[in-house]
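Hi, here's the filled form for the chain we discussed.

Project: internal
Contact: R.S.
Residues: 389
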Amino acid sequence: LGFVATWMLDVLGLRWGIIIGAWVQAAGAGITAVSTLHNIPASYRFPLVVAGQVVAASSQPLLRQSPAMVAATWFADDQRATANMIISMGSPIGSILSNLLGPQIAKSGNSHSLQLLVSLYTIIPCLAVLMATFGICRGSPPTPPSISAAKGTQPFLQGIKMLYRDVQYWILMVSFGAGMGTFQTFVGIIEQVFCPRGYSDTFAGICAALMVLLGMIGAATAGVFLDRTKRFEEIMKFPAAVGTLALIVFAVLSGYPGQEVPLAISASVFGVAAFAMYPTALELSVEITYPVSAATSSGLLIVCGNLQSIILTFLAKYAPPPLSPAEVAHARCGKVVPRDFKVTMLVFAGWMTLAAIILLLAFKPVYKRLRVERMQAKSSDSEQSTRET
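And the returned structure, exactly as it came back:
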């Protein structure tokens, strides 16, 4: 679906891509809400929930791949990175609010509280539908905010061909995908990594929250700094190096009990680095591939990250062996079978290390969009000076 979403945003345009994504997401939420009605047979409820989640999830590529295109189309060159960062952070902020409010509203054994929560999760996408349908009146502003926005981009298939031949883009895509895939997998399995060594689910939740909350600060800092300095390469490589070192520390220490403080610190540093890389990589992909559409260049980065996340999640589910009987006595995994993630975490850290080394040594970007804008600006200034003389 990521490839389809890239095509839709590029061919149908930003406005229709967001509207379709909003409607599909609301449809998925509505199907899930139907499953909580009392007159629905019990045998139909779980299939309805699954169907609703699948439909809602199918909207995510359209919505998650739009920030770079919004920034390129609607914002000036000194605002694009910040705009990209703010829009991109909407998804993790929504996840945090959902995780915080959900347990407070839905109580175990209380069907009415569950209906209230599902209704709330349905109302919000419906409001998004209204805002997208009636609030987004056009896909681009009447006056282009930048020179590159005024010049336009290549057609979808031509853009794909240009990306296929761009070695620097491939390096960025694989490296970014490694970071994104590792982070998504990391957050999803952190409780399973911790519980075999005696760490509580509460501590795992604290680490995950620190990664996201501090990560948003890292993303905000990177976005503002990018707009002011345009030092895309440095702001991409520095978090990649620091985040990799933090992941190595975490991978080693997570195999031992009683390491709460260094584990929390290393997880937080990894979160800050990962979030800083996210908007930076999306903007950088547009810079080095111009005049390829922002939806295509940034969208395929996210597709690569999701593909690597699927592979790493599969490894995390089936690769770790069960704990030895002597170690099981110290585990705090409840009904979950405790597994030994030592080797698996080291594999994750090794893959991230390889990707970071390739990025640091082989990635030599040329800022094509900035170059075009600056050349055009100089040409315009020269013409203006000629007229005045």
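Let me know if anything looks off before we file it.
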